[in-house]
TrEMBL record:
CDD domains: Radical_SAM. Residues 105-320 form the Radical SAM core domain. NCBIfam families: EFP_modif_epmB, KamA family radical SAM protein. Its cofactor is [4Fe-4S] cluster; pyridoxal 5'-phosphate. InterPro entries: Aldolase_TIM (IPR013785), EpmB (IPR022462), Lys_aminomutase/Glu_NH3_mut (IPR003739), rSAM (IPR007197), rSAM_sf (IPR058240). It catalyses: L-lysine = D-beta-lysine. SUPFAM superfamilies: Radical SAM enzymes (SSF102114). Keywords: 4Fe-4S, Iron, Iron-sulfur, Isomerase, Metal-binding, Pyridoxal phosphate, S-adenosyl-L-methionine. This is L-lysine 2,3-aminomutase. The keyword Iron-sulfur applies. Belongs to the radical SAM superfamily. KamA family. PROSITE patterns: RADICAL_SAM.
């Protein structure tokens, strides 16, 4: 059964919400009635990777709580500037796989298109926080070259819209690109990785659905939600519209210290995803990107949490615990710490 109201969520345009995002640390602290003592660190961190957070996401944060799990994902901290030998600018070596503008081709059969370099939110843990997006803003000619590359490789059965956030692109651009890709016979499906509907649910418009779903290609959308508090009525409505359009919905989560590294938090997220008809797909351990070391959860703790989730949830609500390793041809699963003691049901 599908629950929820069918009221449209686009009463305020997503472009307007995007353009009014908070980028000034002082404004964010004031808005959430936080201690001004946080400002110096926030400014220092923002100088390396700017603050950006849209109002609909801020609305879901608790005031006066510096440990709010949604705030922690976006608030710059001075400790991001600490050097750590294991945390580097390009932890996944993508600048070697990004050999053509707009394309990352690192897995067999699948290809990532950098559809937009922009994001609606700057997540402090982002493994692409130092990615040279400026080199991936494609001209019309470069888009044609990217499409020619897909046309020329019969092994590419899946095209993945990535970014930045691909839904930061206009509906017109998405509709054109999707039509072009659907016209390539060996492409079987389209996947969209996005956090935009989570932070600005108003992004899910009829035009967006038409742009993505107007061709023969089945569409899989992988949302990026890290905490059950991210789900409010507007996001629930947006998700419902995506489901009603026939889009398969999955979610991937990054395991983040101080945000979601407890069993109850992860179970609550999986249950909430299940309530909305979204299947938990991946639980990623943190990529070792420079500036994100304060989010680290050690592997033993991560594997223990995954094993406990298996004991408490139906198997289809347990995400796969994975790590991305530079140069590997797929994600690398981490074993359950107590493998053999729990069974899928
Ligand atoms: S939305 Fe995704 S790509 Fe953009 S900053 Fe957040 S994690 Fe990175």
């Amino acid at each position: 059964m599908i629950h929820g109201s069918l009221a449209p969520v686009e009463s305020v345009s997503w472009q307007s919400l995007l353009s009014r995002s908070i980028t000034d640390p002082e404004q964010l602290l004031r808005r959430l009635e936080l201690d001004p003592a946080l400002l110096a660190g926030a400014r220092a961190g923002a100088a390396d990777f700017p603050l950006r957070v849209p109002e609909p996401f801020v609305e879901r944060m608790h005031k006066s709580d510096p440990n709010d799990p949604l705030l922690r994902q976006v608030l710059p901290l001075g400790e991001e500037l600490l050097e750590h030998p294991d945390y580097v600018l390009d932890p996944l070596g993508e600048q070697h796989t990004n050999t053509r503008a707009g394309i990352i081709h690192k897995y067999h059969g699948r290809l990532l298109l950098i559809v937009s370099g922009g994001c609606a939110v700057n997540c402090r843990y982002c493994f692409r926080r130092h990615f040279p997006y400026g080199d991936n803003n494609l001209s019309t000619e470069q888009w044609q070259q990217a499409l020619d590359y897909i046309r020329g490789d019969q092994s590419i059965g899946e095209v993945i819209y990535s970014g930045g956030d691909p839904l930061a692109a206009s509906d017109k651009r998405l509709a054109w690109l999707t039509r072009e890709i659907a016209a390539i016979p060996h492409v079987r499906r389209l996947r969209v990785h996005t956090r935009l509907p989570v932070v600005i649910p108003q992004r899910v418009t009829s035009e967006l659905i038409d742009a993505l779903c107007g061709t023969r290609l089945p569409v899989v959308m992988v949302l990026h939600s890290n905490h059950a508090n991210e789900f409010d009525a507007a996001l629930g409505n947006a998700v419902l519209r995506l489901r009603q359009a026939g889009i398969t919905l999955l979610n991937q989560t990054v395991l983040l210290r101080g945000v979601n590294d407890s069993l109850e938090t992860l179970i609550s997220l999986s249950e909430t995803l299940g309530d909305h008809g979204i299947l938990p797909y991946y639980l990623h351990v943190l990529d070792h990107v420079k500036g994100a070391q304060h989010f680290h959860v050690d592997d033993g703790a991560a594997m223990g949490l995954a094993a406990e989730m298996l004991a408490r949830l139906p198997g289809f609500l347990v995400p796969r615990l994975v790590r991305e390793v530079a140069g590997e041809t797929s994600k690398t699963p981490l074993p359950f710490q107590t493998a053999g003691t729990h069974r899928l049901a």
